[in-house]
Amino acid sequence: MSPLPRALAVQHKRRESWRALEAIFAGGKARAIGVSNYLVPHLRELLGEAKVVPHVNQIELTPFLPRRETRALCKEHQIVVEAYSPLSAAAARRPIVRESRATRRCLRRKCCSVGACNTAT
Q1: Which of 54, 71, 92, 101 lies in the 20 to 30 Å Cα band around 21?
Q2: How many angstroms separate the CA atoms of 117 and 63, rounded?
């Protein structure tokens, strides 16, 4: 199978999935609907035809992968960004991560994510 038909098939599946989520939302069975790992091209595709703008987009964010364009587009369309990040021991040794008070606190508490800890300074 050539890459183009596969890409169109994936695009069609994303469209079908979103329509199903919109129906669930319209029927009152969900208070919010969203996407995961949608970057700028995926969001533009979805926003071009969606009846309901996603309420949330869960994406990987790290100090080394800030995804500025995706975050800016989400902000423009009032889409909440839910960040996840693998925090490995190797990443924790990098100066920018090591110096973060919130990260140090999380590592001491052995939290799954920085967001899981009280990050107040």
Answers
A1: 71
A2: 17
Cβ neighbours of 95 (radius 10 Å): 8
Three-class SS of 5-35: HHHHHHHHHHHHHHHHHHHHHHCCCCCCCEE
Tokens of 109: 């508490």
Measured CA to CA, the distance from residue 109 to residue 57 in angstroms comes to 27
Burial grade of 117 (CB within 10 A; 0-12, 13-18, 19 or more): middle
Please, is 121 exposed, middle or buried when counting C-beta atoms within 10 Å of its C-beta (0-12, 13-18, 19+)? Answer: exposed
Task: Write out the chain's pLDDT in tens, 121 residues.
Answer: 566 688 888 889 999 999 999 999 999 999 999 999 999 999 999 999 999 999 999 999 988 889 999 999 999 999 999 998 776 655 556 665 555 666 666 666 655 544 444 444 3
Q: What pLDDT is recorded for position 121?
A: 39
Give the position of tokens 């009152």: 28
